[in-house]
Amino acid sequence: MTFEQQWIEYDYNPFVLFSSTGKIISLNNEAQYLLGSVDKNTLFEIATAHASTSFGFKTTFLELEFGRYRLFGITVGYENESEIGIRFYQQPTLKFSAPKPTGELINVYTLIDLCVSTSSIGSEIIFFKELDPTIPEIRLHPDNFIKLLNKIYQGYKESENITTKLFYRVGEHIKFEEKKYSLFTIEISGEEFCKKFVSEIELLAKENNLYSLFKESSVSINIPMITD
């Protein structure tokens, strides 16, 4: 493997080279993880849809989300009719200004189950969970964190279905006292969200020294993996 090939292989951004029929010719290490969250045909369709009308390269800025991957742009290139390559640009590392979270070591799965159980009492909402099983015990104040999750679920009380996802933020970290900590996200989504809860959720997240993110169909809480 040449030095240039090694740069591609270990690039933080996923890269896939396709044949003209959509078969994968090569891909880098990060793209292998990306394909765990999205079908290769979807990536090929994105590449062909955003390719230049003539040979060469074209960069397009657009928001894409596949599982734990948050992407803000792509570059598509081809020099002949038999191969087409696409590079995906990941969102940059999150930066927090909040102090390092404190509290006791807790099992985040237990807290999620507790909040889902509480929110489902007397409700016809169907709750779904997609949880990465490898998150260790992390340091949080359980009572405050439960209030935060319950408030998010309350915001989706008019939804028919609520999905809770728990996943690592690949390649992203936060630094406290010159020590790096990985990040993971709890993402809660549903059909209907009551925006009057936004300020309360933001306040509760701040009290937990956590970062909240609101999208059209989801609310996310990004959490440092502090296990010491």
What are the salient characteristics of this protein?
five-stranded antiparallel sheet; globular; alpha+beta; five-stranded mixed sheet; 26% helix; Beta-Lactamase; 228 residues; Heat Shock Protein 90
Sum this structure up briefly.
It contains six helices and twelve strands. It has helices spanning 3-9, 29-34, 40-49, 108-120, 142-155, 198-207, and strands at 15-19, 24-27, 56-66, 69-78, 83-90, 104-106, 126-131, 138-140, 161-176, 179-190, 211-214, 218-224.
Describe this structure in words.
With 228 residues, the chain is of the alpha+beta class. It folds into 2 domains: 3-90, PAS domain (Beta-Lactamase, 2-Layer Sandwich), CATH 3.30.450; 104-224, Heat Shock Protein 90 (2-Layer Sandwich), CATH 3.30.565. It has helices at residues 3-9, 29-34, 40-49, 108-120, 142-155, 198-207, and strands at residues 15-19, 24-27, 56-66, 69-78, 83-90, 104-106, 126-131, 138-140, 161-176, 179-190, 211-214, 218-224. The strands form 3 sheets. The chain has a 5-stranded antiparallel sheet with strand order 2-1-5-4-3. The protein starts with a helix and ends with a strand. The mean pLDDT is 88.
Task: Describe the protein's topology.
Layout: H1 3-9, E1 15-19, E2 24-27, H2 29-34, H3 40-49, E3 56-66, E4 69-78, E5 83-90, E6 104-106, H4 108-120, E7 126-131, E8 138-140, H5 142-155, E9 161-176, E10 179-190, H6 198-207, E11 211-214, E12 218-224
Parallel strand pairs: 7-9
Antiparallel strand pairs: 1-2, 1-5, 3-4, 4-5, 6-8, 9-10, 10-12, 11-12
Helix pairs in contact: 4-5, 5-6
Strand order of the largest sheet: 2-1-5-4-3
Which architecture of the largest domain does the CATH hierarchy give at level 2? 2-Layer Sandwich
Q: How many domains make up the coordinates? A: 2
- β-strand number: 12
Q: Radius of gyration, rounded? A: 20 Å
Largest sheet, if any?
Answer: 5 strands, antiparallel
- Strand proportion, as a percent range, falls in 35-45%
Helical proportion? 25-40%
CATH class of the largest domain: Alpha Beta
Q: Which parts are unreliable, with pLDDT below 50 for 5 consecutive residues or more?
A: none
Classified in CATH, the superfamily of the largest domain is Histidine kinase-like ATPase, C-terminal domain
Distance between the termini: 39 Å
- How many helices? The count is 6
